[in-house]
Design a protein that fits this description.
The structure holds 2 protein chains of 2 kinds. Chain A is an all-alpha fold. Chain A has 2 domains: 76 residues, no CATH class; 229 residues, MetI-like (MetI-like fold, Orthogonal Bundle), CATH 1.10.3720.10. Helices cover 77% and strands 0% of the residues of chain A. Chain A has 12 helices and no strands. The relative contact order of chain A is 0.13. By secondary structure, chain B is mainly alpha-helical. Chain B has a single domain, classed as MetI-like (MetI-like fold, Orthogonal Bundle). In chain B, helix 5 packs parallel to helix 8, helix 5 packs parallel to helix 14 and helix 13 packs antiparallel against helix 14. The radius of gyration of chain B is 23 Å and the shape is elongated. Classes of the chains: A mainly alpha, B mainly alpha. Chains A and B meet through helix 1, helix 6, helix 7, helix 8 and helix 10 of A and helix 6, helix 7, helix 12 and helix 14 of B.
Amino acid sequence: MRFVLRRLGLFLVTLWAALTINFLIPRLMPGNEATAVLSHFKGVNPAALHALEVEFGVGTDQNILVSYIQYLGNCLTGQFGLDSARVPVMTTILKGLPWTLGLVGMATILAFGIGTLLGIVSAWRRGGKLDSLLSPLLFILTTFPVFFIALLLLYVFGVTLGWFPLSANYSVGETPSLTIPFVLDVLGHAVLPGLTLVITTSGGWIYTMRNNMVTTLSEDYVRMARAKGLSSWRIMLDYSARNAILPNLTGFAMQLGFILGGSILVEYTFSYPGLGYLFFTGTTNHDLPLQAALFLFYTLAVLVCVLLADFATAWLDPRTRDA
Amino acid sequence: MASAFAAPEPRPAVAEEHGLLEAAGRLGRAVARNHKASLGLLLLVFVTVVAAFPGVIAHGDPQAAIYDQQVGPSASHIFGTTQVGQDVFTQLIYGTRLTLIITVVVGALCTLISVLVGVTAAYVGGVVDSGLSLVTDIFLIIPTLPLLIVLSTYLSGSGTIAIIAVLVVTGWAFGARQLRAQGLALRTRDFLEAARVRGERRPYIILVEILPNMLSLVVASFLGSAVYTVATAAGLQFLGLGNSGEITWGTMLHFAQQNGALESGNAWWALAPGAAVALLGTAFALLNYAFDEIANPALRPVRRRRDKSAA
């Protein structure tokens, strides 16, 4: 119980810190972006203008503390104002969300599965071909910049071979529907961006999983299992991998921040209209309400995953509960 | 750290204590014996030489727009030219310097903050530790690239200093957490107790007793930060949010992408700086990988024995 409360505490404090950073950045930074944005909004109805003024804390003579509290209230109720197209920010975000969720979700699950499995085998056959060739290669690939892999795949499979489309989420002229051609079209557009994310993240899972496995394989209880004559499969999966996967679970949540960052670059490279692309266009257009809301959204996504991973770890490994 | 050499303290007979010089010497020998480390070092030396003497390899002004615009590779322009007629190869060579400077400066500053925060938290303990650890955790959880993008919006056009500043702000936390863990592990060791009993002052203990024993982790922390910086800085510049006015590999990528280099038969304009970023990242990553092995002997490669595969 104490563990749960402590984790919840960190969750709330970090959430508050992210909200506050988001509130303070426009006010502390040199330059005057807030008024720059407001200049686009001349002639808007007074209520919308006032909402923006509250958001940036300019044009009104109210105390910064009052606007801070107003801002917190707006964030908690999901009111992020209007974006530069005068559409509520939430509507714009919800339009991009499914694309990113599908892309990042699938890529993460694939990368985690492939990476963890290869890590297990790599440690089990330590010094073998997989361990000395493939795993280091994939680990080196994780240090390659995401956008370089994206550009490379785009060039080889998109431009040169022409196997996959170069950009967007589905072909121009198609109307979204649940028909087989449309679904295939969507999947075809997702292959290259998804593959980019899988390639750049699976190496990390291999690396940590392998090193954890190396440690657990030398533990006494594994030697005991060998002495009992248990099958290799059982020792590998049930005895060694089961304990070795725990740190990876915590890493899962931490990795999500990295993957979300990577997805911004990938969506930009492939002009894939998810949240990352919105974030990029919002930034270059100085669409600050959109940018601020997306930053909070990303942080919240990572926070929730960290919390869930903590609970899962505590559930699987009783030792962490006292920590 | 200079005070470590300046203080002529009589060396007490404690087995675990190592001087800074001695530790550095052991580290040097370990690097020479490790293949990954040697290769990484070789790549890094190569990039450094290019950064130091770009004029030897490439000729002409990297900013001069004096050639045909956006043409593919040819004998006179092996990587083609840009949209305004600059030579891509010349830009690549001259872009090395600023790319490397940003990487090393950000890596060093991140490491400095990590050491200060991590060691202080571990050694002082109590409320200070709780506070510093909380701040570290918060910076670890907030996703880096979105925070970077938000920060750089307000610094656009401020150039290299701004990009260094935002990268340091977002990059120090991971090292700080590792150094704190190592500091906690060292805290109860006998040689520190001996130093306290001798009546040494706190700065002396931290600089001369704790830091040399953390040297490999400090180096690893620098290498980790460098790996992070190479990719992140280039990513930010790729989006056009960095120091777009200056020539780095990342800004080259931005203009290549903006002008559709891949689709218009001028792929090297994008692929060459991309490969260069990957190469530099690999150099630091190889060194980092090797340092993990040096610091943790359990991870070193073993020769596979026949009887093991039968198990």
